[in-house]
Amino acid sequence: MLNQIRGLHHMTSLAADAAENNAFFTNVLGLRRVKKTVNFDAPDVYHLYYGDEVGTPGSVMTYFPFPNIARGSKGTGEVGETVFSVPPGALGFWQDRLASFDVQGLELQEHFGEKRLAFKNPDGEAFALSEVADNPRSGWTGNGVSDDHAIRGFHSAGMRLKDDGAMAELLGFMGYQKLDSVGNITRFAIGEGTGANTIDLEILPTVRQAGQGAGSVHHIAFSVDDRAAQLAVRKALMDTGYAVTPVIDRDYFWAIYFQTPGGVLFEIATNEPGFDRDEDTAHLGQALKLPSQHEHLRAALEKNLQPIPA
């Protein structure tokens, strides 16, 4: 069993409109945009990162907004829900706030004994806010949300699968332990780490495979401390039979990827070097930062990328 995984690092999804996506996560959810860059493989598409003040691992939601991409179809083999952590007593504030922005899918729920508020973003992607007591993580308060209500990073992610056997085995190998089951959902958690330590597996044996598009999670990333830990994880996964990519430099972390038996793309990302490697903390996410191999395209990209606020 691996002991290097520290919980969630980030989630990366697809969107149809960069400006709309930026407005939702900053103006509505009150997160900070910590990086404005481009997709390594498609530099004419933004890669936008939202999180806490510095983009702490376990807080960062990232997006590839492909202009006018068709909406994805929900199903199995995907991350079906991303859940953020908020302080106890904050759900009333968030219900009023999200309603004032005409956010769709609002529903107060109880899930594994936790109070939460479900909602959808403009692309139909499923989210929830879950009240968590004694959460030491700090929220970002720069967009009109007070510290009493601010999002404190991720709480969990929910995967939708036809069968959970292989995924449960993989999560166990990664250091997760089964906590509980309610109906067709089983909860797994890992120990100390980023604070984003929970995974729910929802089993839907008769539901068709999901189709990716706007509103789909592209991949889910798990945290390791550094490159040495990442290499140890990579070797262990490959020894177990997984086809894992070489280490890829993503400027703000190093990444490896592998496809899981349930169809969800997993990433293992380092906590180093962080989002302040090319911008000071006070100005994170303001300037367009380009991977070195795309710097020669700056003039064209700045001319053609959809304008979004600095």
What does this 3D model show about the protein?
The structure is a single chain. With 310 residues, the chain is α+β, with helices and mostly antiparallel strands. It has one domain: 2,3-Dihydroxybiphenyl 1,2-Dioxygenase, domain 1 (Roll), CATH 3.10.180.10. Helix content is 16%, strand content 35%. The protein has five helices and 16 strands. The strands form two sheets. An eight-stranded mixed β-sheet has the order 2-3-4-1-13-16-15-14. An eight-stranded mixed β-sheet has the order 6-7-8-5-9-12-11-10, covered by helices on one side. It is globular. The termini are far apart.
Give keywords.
globular, 2,3-Dihydroxybiphenyl 1,2-Dioxygenase, domain 1, single chain, 310 residues, 5 helices, alpha+beta
Would you summarize the structure shown here?
The chain is of the alpha+beta class and 310 residues long. The protein has five helices and 16 strands. The chain has a single domain, classed as Roll (2,3-Dihydroxybiphenyl 1,2-Dioxygenase, domain 1).
Topology, please?
Elements: E1 8-15, H1 18-28, E2 32-38, E3 46-51, E4 60-65, E5 78-86, H2 91-100, E6 104-111, E7 114-120, E8 126-131, E9 154-161, H3 165-173, E10 177-182, E11 185-189, E12 198-203, E13 217-224, H4 227-240, E14 248-249, E15 253-259, E16 265-273, H5 298-304
Parallel strand pairs: 1-4, 5-8, 9-12, 13-16
Antiparallel strand pairs: 1-13, 2-3, 3-4, 5-9, 6-7, 7-8, 10-11, 11-12, 14-15, 15-16
InterPro entries: Extradiol_RC_dioxygenase, Glyas_Fos-R_dOase_dom, VOC_core
Organism: Roseobacter insulae
Protein name: VOC family protein
